[in-house]
């Protein structure tokens, strides 16, 4: 059986570890050529050495699953580096079928547990302004610039843009910071706005919500900090992206906010353990 995405070219930003790595593996599982970006090419991150994962690790596992993995070091807060990644894909292939905007600096303070992490649930006037910068510079802005640079290649392929967001965009809770709520809300609205611009060109643009994902950072949390009974593997999110990319009717979803667990119900895929996690929509909708 031919893999569903054989011959397709994908770019996943922020794929050294976590959800980005899982998305790359899901695309590799479907046979895609996957360019993966991040700051850690090999070994452990110099920035967060307690977290495993590098671009070379991700690319190797993409190949192990049947795809082609291409590691490209990139700090997406530097527009020139982002531009160079897209130029390389243009030189190598002349088109891009799938762009997954996953890179996200918003949880850095939680991992390092510095002032940003310690003030995560504090009133906005007590939070350091760097929390905003993490979420918008290494998040929303990075997503916008990557999409902007990649749009001509995506238009050639009538491709797919997926912005990784979260249910926190749906309503603000007192325990969540204002920058977090606004960043995720902006990601959702950016998917809609880009869909409007790209609609005449047949490019699909969506926002995608994972549930609670068993990333390296989550698994390092103290026992009992998270209820993992309805959690998702990072690769489950990759399977959601792959199923959407393989759907010939995906354009009907352009501009929408989608949920990985709900796509599993629609497309019939499961997580690595054969289970199908429940959507968290009911616990977050106003």
Structural description of this entry:
With 286 residues, the protein is α/β, with parallel strands linked by helices. The chain has one domain: 3-Layer(aba) Sandwich (Rossmann fold), CATH 3.40.50. 43% of the residues lie in helices and 12% in strands. It contains eleven helices and seven strands. The protein has a seven-stranded parallel beta sheet with strand order 3-2-1-4-5-6-7, sandwiched between helices. The model has no long low-confidence stretch (mean pLDDT 92).
Give a topology summary.
Layout: E1 9-12, H1 18-29, E2 33-38, H2 55-64, E3 68-73, H3 79-93, E4 98-101, H4 108-112, H5 115-118, H6 130-157, E5 160-164, H7 178-198, E6 204-209, H8 216-219, H9 234-246, E7 257-259, H10 260-267, H11 281-284
DSSP E strands, number: 7
Q: Could you please say which CATH topology applies here?
A: Rossmann fold
- What's the helix count? 11
Largest sheet: 7 strands, parallel
Can you write the helix and strand succession as a string?
A: EHEHEHEHHHEHEHHEHH
Mean pLDDT: 92
Shape: globular
The first-level CATH class is given as Alpha Beta
Cα distance, first to last residue?
44 Å
CATH homology-level superfamily:
NAD(P)-binding Rossmann-like Domain
Helix % is 40-55%
Strand order of the largest sheet: 3-2-1-4-5-6-7
The domain tally reads: 1
Supply the helix-strand structural class.
alpha/beta
CATH architecture: 3-Layer(aba) Sandwich
Radius of gyration: 18 Å
Low-confidence stretches: none
Beta strand %: 5-15%
Organism: Deinococcus navajonensis
Protein name: SDR family NAD(P)-dependent oxidoreductase
Pfam family, one: adh_short
InterPro entries: NAD(P)-bd_dom_sf (IPR036291), SDR_fam (IPR002347)
């Amino acid at each position: 059986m031919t893999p569903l995405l054989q011959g397709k070219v994908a770019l996943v930003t922020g794929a050294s570890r976590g959800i980005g790595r899982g998305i790359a593996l899901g695309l590799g599982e479907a046979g895609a050529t996957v360019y993966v970006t991040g700051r850690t090419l090999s070994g452990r991150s110099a920035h967060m050495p307690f977290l495993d994962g590098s671009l070379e690790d991700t690319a190797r596992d993409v190949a192990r699953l049947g795809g082609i993995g291409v590691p490209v070091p990139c700090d997406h807060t530097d527009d020139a580096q982002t531009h160079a990644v897209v130029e390389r894909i243009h030189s190598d292939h002349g088109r891009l079928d799938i762009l997954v905007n996953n890179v996200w600096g918003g949880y850095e303070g939680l991992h390092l547990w510095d002032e940003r992490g310690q003030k995560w649930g504090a009133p906005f006037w007590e939070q350091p302004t760097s929390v905003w910068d993490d979420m918008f510079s290494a998040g929303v802005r990075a997503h916008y610039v990557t999409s902007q640079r990649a749009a001509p290649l995506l238009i050639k392929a009538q491709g797919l843009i997926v912005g990784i967001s979260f249910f926190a965009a749906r309503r603000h809770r007192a325990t969540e910071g204002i920058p977090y709520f606004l960043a995720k809300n902006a990601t959702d609205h950016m998917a809609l706005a880009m869909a409007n611009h790209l609609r005449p060109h047949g490019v699909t643009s969506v926002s995608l919500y994972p549930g609670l994902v068993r990333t390296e950072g989550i698994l390092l949390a103290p026992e009992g900090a998270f209820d993992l009974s309805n959690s998702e593997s990072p690769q489950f999110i990759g399977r959601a992206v792959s199923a959407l990319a393989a759907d010939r009717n995906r354009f009907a979803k352009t501009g929408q906010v989608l949920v990985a667990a709900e796509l599993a119900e629609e497309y019939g895929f499961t997580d690595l353990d054969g289970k199908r996690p429940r959507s968290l929509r009911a616990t977050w909708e106003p």
